[in-house]
Sequence to fold (236 residues):
Amino acid sequence: MNIVKAQSSIPVIVQDVAEAPATPRSAVKYAVEAIGTFFVVFTVGSAVGSHSPLTPLAIGAALMVMIYAGGHLSGGHYNPAVTLAALVRRRIGPRDATAYWISQFGAGLLAAVVVRAFVDPIQPITTMTLSGHRLTAAFVVELLFTFALCYVVLNVATSKSHPVNSFYGLAIGFTVVAGAIAVGSISGGAFNPAVTVGAGVMNVFAWPTLWVYLVAQVIGGVAAGVASLGLDPDDK
Fold:
């Protein structure tokens, strides 16, 4: 099922900037974004606490299945940087984008609180601290893989060149898997502002360094939207 085609006559992720007043359909989209983001952030905290070598696969798989579960309803962003990229690419309007961000950050914070209450006491989480060159390296890799993730989403899940496909969830999930394996030891492999803030609450990341992640992820999301516009301007 295609993320774009499975929507109503005006797909969620490719709607015009001018939007109608909120409807029950809008509430469904926001709820789906909250559910998907909750399970992504909860999986991050639980998997990190378990110290499993399969942590990157668990996180990518959680994202993948949530995209397949809710992509036809909300577009399956579950990531404020992806929503930002879609906004720049004109695949979502500003009102919906703002509501998505509220849903995503709210669900991420709730998931972090649940992890702190039920997972951390059993599987203590070690805080990643960054300084010096490693801080710069974390900024660079978070920017690059956030760009890669948003770029993949825009091209496999919103492009009209793929009117019917079933690979979008795998492509997006495995982008996260690849990034987490490649640079997880450098930055922790967040690539998602909701995950970043949730990781701060879960003590995965140190609060004084969160700005590095958030700035890199915002730049990566904007850059992906601009790149998609520039490389495929006819896909409107």
Notes: Residues 151 and 218 are 13 Å apart (CA to CA).
